[in-house]
Write a structure and sequence with these properties.
about 130 residues; 4-stranded antiparallel β-sheet; mainly beta; about 50% strand
Length: about 130
């Protein structure tokens, strides 16, 4: 969902398989507002056995990178470059690697910025 000022991610029932990668830091107890959360969302056809997403198909896979911190520009932004690869390894289990970037153009007095996220591991449904 996109508003005038921000993009919100809402996962609803449908015929696609949606992946969420989330990384959060707790920060140091003696420092205020040093926590960070990054989130990657993307979707694929539920019958897919393996996939490779890149600049050619990020838009079709509704791929977003979210950065949330006390660090200037935050929110969800469309992934613009990089790669996400996945292979089904079991019933609703996937081995996925991602190395993606979201380039955000300058606007008003806010400079351009590139957010990045990298991870690899096994993905499975939340309990």
């Amino acid at each position: 969902n996109e508003t005038e000022n921000e993009t919100f991610i809402e996962v609803i029932d449908g015929d696609m398989l949606v992946f969420e990668y989330r990384y959060s830091t707790e920060g140091a107890p003696e420092i205020a507002d040093d926590e960070l959360t990054e989130v990657v969302y993307f979707e694929i056809d539920k019958n897919t056995e393996d996939f490779s997403l890149n600049e050619a198909n990020f838009e079709a896979s509704t791929a977003y990178l979210g950065k949330f911190c006390f660090c200037g520009r935050t929110g969800f932004f469309e992934i613009t470059s990089g790669e996400i690869n996945g292979e089904k390894t079991g019933e609703l289990q996937w081995r996925i690697s991602l190395d993606v970037q979201a380039f955000i153009e300058a606007e008003d007095n806010i400079p351009e910025v590139t957010f990045e996220a990298s991870a690899s591991g096994n993905f499975r449904p939340k309990n």
